[in-house]
Amino acid sequence: MPPFPKKWLIVLLVLGFGIPLLNPLMPDVVSSYRLFLVSTMIIAAIAVLGLNLLTGFNGQISLGHGAFYAVGAYAAAILMDQYDVPYYATLPIAAVICFVVGYLFGQPALKLEGHYLALATFALALSVPQILKYKWLEGITGGVQGIVLSKPEPPFGLPLSEDQWLYYYCFIVMVILFWISHNILNSRSGRAMMAIRDYPIAADTMGINLRLYKTVTFGISAAITGIAGALSASAIAFVAPDSFNIFLSIKFLIGLVVGGIGSLAGCVVGGIFYVLVDNSAQALSTFIKNDLGLQFDLSAYTVFGILLIALMYMMPMGIVGGVYAAMRSLRRGSKGPAPSERPAVAASKPAASRQGH
Amino acid sequence: MKKTNRRTFVAGVSAAALLTSRSVAFAQKKYDDGASDTEIKIGHTNPYSGPASSYGVIGKTLQAYWKSVNEAGGINGRKINFISLDDGYSPPKTVECIRQLVEQDKVLCTFNTLGTPCNTAIHKYMNSKKVPQLYVATGASKWGDPKHFPWTMGFQPDYHTEGVIYAKHLLANVKDPKIAVIMQNDDYGKDYWEGFKEGLGKDASKVVKHVTYETTDPTVDSQVIQLKDSGANVFFVIAIPKFAAQAMRKAGDIGWKPTIYLNNVSASVASAMKPAGFENVQGVMTAAYLMDPTDKQWDSHPDMKTWVDWMKKHNPGGSLSDASNVFAYAVATLMHETLKKCGDNLTRENLMRQAANFQKWKLPLALPGITVSTSPTDFYPIQAVQLARFKGETWELFGDIMHAESS
Amino acid sequence: MEQFLQQLASGLANGAIYACVALALVMIYVSTDHLNFAQGEMAMFSTYISWQLMAWGLSFWVAFILAVLISFVLGVLIERIILRPLHTAPVLSVVVVFIGLLAICNSMAGAIWSYLIKEFPSPFPKSAFGIAGVIGPHQLGVVLVTLIVLTLLFLFFRFTPLGLAMRAAAQNPQMARLVGVRVDWMLALGWGLAAAVGAVAGIMVAHIVYLDPNMMAGILLYAFASALVGGIGNPGGAVVGGFIVGVLENMVAYAGNMIEKETGVYIIGNGEKLTVALVIVIFVLTVKPAGLFGRVVVKRV
Fold first, then answer.
1. Residues of B with Cβ-Cβ distance to A299 under 8 angstroms
2. B331-348 pLDDT per residue, tens
3. What is the nearest CA distance from B20 to chain C, expressed in angstroms?
4. Class of domain A6-354
5. pTM exceeding the 0.90 threshold for the entire prediction
6. Which regions in chain A score pLDDT beneath 50?
7. Residue-wise over C85-100: b if at least 16 C-beta within 10 A, else e?
8. Can you list the domains of chain B with their CATH numbers?
9. Any CB–CB contact under 8 A between C278 and chain A?
């Protein structure tokens, strides 16, 4: 996919920094609630970014990134709760912990591909809430009751509200992480990652250390998702095993696919979608019931399912992929042949079908 | 000390009497966010999707209830605008929904938000925003703490107290008890378990085996086998209907006949006792506070008749055998009454004051003799239960109504 | 010893459930190369259909056969209508469609039949079946039905022209097309068969776990694990995998229980049995990446 135009990026960054300052001036339009909502979108976008590095750019399917998100959230919560670590210092520690967990998990995962890897990660996502409740860990994890935290307060006496500061905190972390990811992907290592995704055998013969790259990618991916988890612990100010059920992982996957696999912009779109889809499904369901007068109770969950299927019909490559495709078809002719679509995760399909022969 | 002048005393009393009855209507109208001359906004969260979606019926019945109230003219001339959002039983989502309700939709209060972890996630927020979090739909004991959380109030008898009651009954009635416990591995299970242990006191060592299950487990057969193997003669079931039914049936299947105590959560005849097989559940004991709609003995009770008529007319999609519908109806009538008592003074402060001012109010569909009582220091509306034993195809109440003071 | 036998029997009974659902997963996998995340919910929906038929007064076996047929048709329709346009879409997009399907099946069942759990009858006579105190009649019946379904599938694929055509279409679509196999329809047929097997699984499971819209949520993961342990392309492997996972899970709990009994120290128990069982499954997979029986039967060019 073509790189995002730089001038637009700057405009977006300026808007991202400027709009929240309007909160005291226009409390209804730029409301605290909306800032909070955008913060949760940012957190989701970071989590999807972590998943995208692994699945989108390295071709390893994960159905269990909720596990790393949970580890990050709990690491942050325990540090704040038990050791009085300030909230901002929990991010690097959570990242390191998640990197180690991800790296270690990447070792056996090396042997697994396609559906087998999907199962292993799925199992990880299911196990983590149970491990959090494990009898000998209850002392620090709070067991089933979880841990109640305080929200981060603005530093240096900045005249910001809690929600404004939370937004900036998340926004800055997001910008840094996207910048780092962008640089990784455009480096030698990034190209190696993608080569492994698209042509594993060729990459191997060319001397790329598959083992190292795959496990380290797993670690980085877990670390980024873990940071998102740590942010969420601060934003929600509460962690409990119930917050990290299997649907969390599935929703990250939905965010990834709907946003656009193998695209950084897609992570942001996915993060927004992740938060909006529930709300819009519910709004639509109410609308259908009240305004269209349908007698049958079409629940929000049904609408959610229909939305997903419809989206995949219209844009099988995700929203970003779909938008690019639409733009290309508009410009066709004037600019010669369009750059070919990246195989993205189509690459995982041959990998999967190689299994079990 | 000054002697109380008799005349001023009498005047004071009559003024107070006036205040509590009709005078409110003449007082100046007072509103907080979410209340006006024409409507009262109430927020609600509930899982309508995902693994806990079986609780969705509560939300639907509540919606039907407020609709029927509006059709009958509302409360003191105001329509209820009941905004119910789906949180999928996920605490982060609950926080998002509640912030939308409080900050965007500007509700007067929230009502019957469901789930222990979900309510825990918003507990601090609601109290710092000073928005009433009324009659939450969870039995955890932490909701009645007016000193630290003056804006939060529970509704049902808490699990902790119920656990204490079973333990006390068991110690008094079972000779040489050896106790086996199965518990859902979450907040709800833990609360019962802690209460049960507290009730056993120094006899806590009589628990010979304690096992847990996860809601993702397909069956609890393996757990029940372990429990039987422990040689226990008492079986305390802390499980939701599906797993409670499985556990009791499995116990029967493998020929284990202990004295069974079943948590009230699963006391429904239709969704737990019948699926477990009536032959397996004879003599099972539970503590009840509401009438079970599938229990024939209530068929001619006026409360039950009113409820059935109401269901048929206003909630035709709802199941008449689902205890959740009874629960939702009962808690909604309590909210209805609270709002009615507020009169035209619809401030959040007054709402809490009225909620904390019930004296032996007869709650529809509560067991005879069980009433709602609250005070500024007592935020547990219902604290009484009555034990029941399963016989034939229905529950038989026995013993006195127990008023347990929650710890 | 008694506990050991009971745990073993109960593990086998649970294993039969996993095996049944795993079989359905394998059916779709061999014909379309996808892991169907909505399989559990589709099976649940089929079970509700049979429940409804019984509620209308049909006998168990009539309802059973009708539900299986209806499920077959529904499976074919889902493939033709929902998945056909996505033939060229990336794998993960199809996964998202499966998740959408899962959400729709689950919420529709809830809306039509409510979330209240329902009893589901067992067709197996109480007197003639089972070993008292060890395995119930229904559990034994499920094991038998699973084996019968497996045998039928084996016969179908091995000895009928249609079975041969389906295998050909899955293994080498281009070649199959050249020799006149209608590959498109074979895919749809695969979905139909999977839905039918799923219906059998659901109807067998429902008596044990009770019928409710979320009844398959827990089971599906075990079924995945079973299918993968056995080798995802191999029906026989899936069934063996199901029994392995079912027994393994109970044995983990049993071992934990025994350790606690002997030493008084809690190490593992019911809270961790899923985790431990999965760790073992994944360990097996890292040693034999294609599953235990992955290479033996399935041959694809």
1. 48-49, 56
2. 999 999 999 888 888 889
3. 43
4. mainly alpha
5. no
6. 1, 335-357
7. ebeebbbbbbbbbbbb
8. 22-157+300-376 (3.40.50.2300), 159-288+387-403 (3.40.50.2300)
9. yes
